[in-house]
């Protein structure tokens, strides 16, 4: 097996013998393997008192699992460091079964009994959770990389290989390399590439996005996420609305009509640094205001964080998007959310609202958009609205595509009274489209006692000390504003 893995385990010395005396030994013997063919011939009859394993996997599986089975029956295991052995590799030995495509059938004859042995091992003794996990990992390895690969090498047996891959992924679905190999194998089964290109890309998107929604972290995950997001427009073109569970635990119905929904489908997360910051700033019983709620990701994030004793006020003037927002709220039975269809601004009245392109409804805005349909919507000052339970506002999130300063101007009483934290998307180009600027936004909130920070995905909050310093930020970024001197 892998001697280095076992030398890290706790041992008890008895002369030249190293007796392994570690609670993780069983799991290690499964994950890394003790290959004990020679020892089997000498010790098997005595150790197992004549017990014989099933004939279907007597030879190779019995060889691989010898130590694990002995350990589960109360035996100890040790090793010597200075032993020299010469032995003959017979034709049925698995040592020669792994190398090459020349004899696929021989490889399968050797490896299938081994996989069956690991499958049966689960039922032979009482194992800990870690030992069960080790068995599942090892069975996945045998099925996927040993049997599945052998089948993939054999001409005309690709369908059989794909079915073996499926079985392996059901046993242990947490391997990025396995999912990638499975998807590539699937893609090669479709017809002519030029005729099947959309279908192959869609199959890859479905498999890749499913994996990314299940697995939050693994080395190189960002590369897979980039591929998945690049393919995500296929969601709107080829699939009906999909109900997914995002990393934060709630469910959402996404249809690919906005960049937010595409990213959520492709990766299961959205702006993770901003999400983490929001969760760190609110708690049970708080009141959160979500201005520009879109389809409800941040609304639902806040709803779950503030709990039944808290409340969320969600503002979304786009009728079509607001229907998706309310649908997602119902999907999660988020009874602590109230949805408002008004736009927020400095004065009450009516305003022209640009609904944006059909392939990215998240761009809807009070800012003029070329070629966009328009509707008239009511506008209100936030300060004129009643607050649920009359409680103070703890956090405000604003993403209104350039109208951020107008929203803030209608909240002056709330900001002076409650001093809530503010999280806001800042795009100088969009702000200028409504007669403002990022510098003017900075100066306004700075005059109210707020300090500005850039939210970065790769590290801590980055202080922005002046309006001129905004020039060093990305053209579009999320900002955190706080009046809390302790921050």
Mean pLDDT metric: 84
Given helix and strand content, the structural type is alpha/beta
- Indicate the overall shape: elongated
* Major sheet summary line: 8 strands, mixed
User: Beta fraction of the residues?
Assistant: 15-25%
Sheet with the most strands: spatial strand order:
8-7-6-12-13-16-14-15
Low-confidence stretches: 37-58, 95-101, 189-196
Radius of gyration: 30 Å
N-to-C span: 53 Å
Would you report the number of β strands? 16
Helical amount = 40-55%
Give structural notes.
The protein is an alpha/beta fold and 487 residues long. It is 44% helix and 16% strand. The strands form four sheets. Strands 8-7-6-12-13-16-14-15 form an eight-stranded mixed β-sheet, with helices on both faces. A three-stranded antiparallel β-sheet has the order 1-2-3. Strands 9-11-10 form a three-stranded mixed β-sheet, with no helix packed on it. Strand 6, helix 15 (297-306) and strand 7 (311-315) form a beta-alpha-beta unit. The two termini are 53 Å apart.
């Amino acid at each position: 097996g892998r001697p280095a893995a076992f030398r890290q385990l706790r041992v008890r010395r008895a002369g030249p013998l190293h007796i392994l005396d570690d609670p993780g030994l069983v799991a290690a013997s499964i994950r890394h393997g003790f290959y004990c063919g020679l020892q089997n011939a000498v010790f098997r009859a005595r150790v197992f008192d004549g017990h014989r394993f099933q004939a279907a996997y007597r030879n190779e599986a019995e060889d691989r699992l010898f130590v694990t089975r002995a350990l589960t029956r109360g035996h100890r295991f040790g090793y010597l460091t200075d032993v020299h052995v010469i032995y003959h590799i017979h034709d049925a030995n698995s040592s020669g079964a792994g190398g090459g495509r020349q004899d696929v059938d021989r490889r399968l004859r050797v490896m299938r009994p081994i996989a069956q042995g690991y499958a049966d091992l689960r039922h032979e003794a009482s194992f800990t959770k870690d030992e069960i996990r080790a068995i599942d990992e090892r069975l996945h390895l045998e099925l996927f990389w040993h049997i599945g690969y052998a089948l993939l090498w054999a001409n005309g047996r690709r369908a059989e290989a794909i079915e073996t891959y499926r079985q392996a992924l059901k046993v242990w679905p947490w391997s990025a390399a396995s999912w990638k190999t499975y998807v590539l194998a699937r893609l090669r089964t479709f017809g002519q590439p030029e005729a099947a290109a959309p279908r192959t890309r869609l199959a890859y998107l479905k498999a890749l996005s499913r994996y990314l929604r299940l697995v939050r972290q693994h080395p190189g995950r960002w590369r897979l996420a980039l591929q998945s997001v690049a393919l995500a427009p296929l969601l709107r073109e080829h699939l009906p609305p999909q109900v997914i569970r995002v990393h934060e635990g709630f469910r959402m119905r996404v249809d690919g009509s906005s960049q937010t929904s595409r990213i959520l489908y492709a990766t299961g997360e959205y702006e993770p640094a901003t999400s983490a910051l929001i969760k760190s700033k609110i708690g049970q019983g708080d009141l959160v205001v979500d201005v520009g709620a879109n389809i409800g990701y941040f609304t639902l994030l806040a709803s779950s964080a503030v709990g039944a004793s808290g409340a969320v006020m969600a503002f979304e003037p786009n009728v079509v998007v607001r229907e998706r927002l309310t649908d997602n709220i119902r999907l999660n039975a988020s009874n602590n959310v109230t949805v408002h269809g008004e736009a927020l601004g400095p004065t009450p009245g009516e305003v022209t609202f640009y609904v944006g392109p059909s392939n990215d409804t998240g761009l809807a805005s009070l800012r003029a958009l070329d070629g966009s349909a328009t509707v008239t919507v009511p506008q209100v000052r936030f300060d004129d609205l009643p607050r649920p339970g009359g409680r103070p506002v703890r956090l405000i999130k604003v993403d209104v595509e350039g109208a951020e300063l107008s929203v803030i101007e209608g909240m002056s009483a709330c900001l002076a009274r409650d001093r809530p934290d503010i999280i806001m998307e800042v795009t100088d180009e969009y702000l200028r489209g409504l007669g403002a600027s990022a510098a003017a936004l900075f100066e306004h909130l700075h005059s109210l006692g707020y300090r500005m920070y850039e939210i970065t995905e790769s590290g801590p909050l980055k202080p922005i000390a002046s309006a001129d310093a905004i020039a060093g930020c990305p053209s579009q970024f999320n900002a955190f504003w706080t009046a809390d001197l302790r921050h």
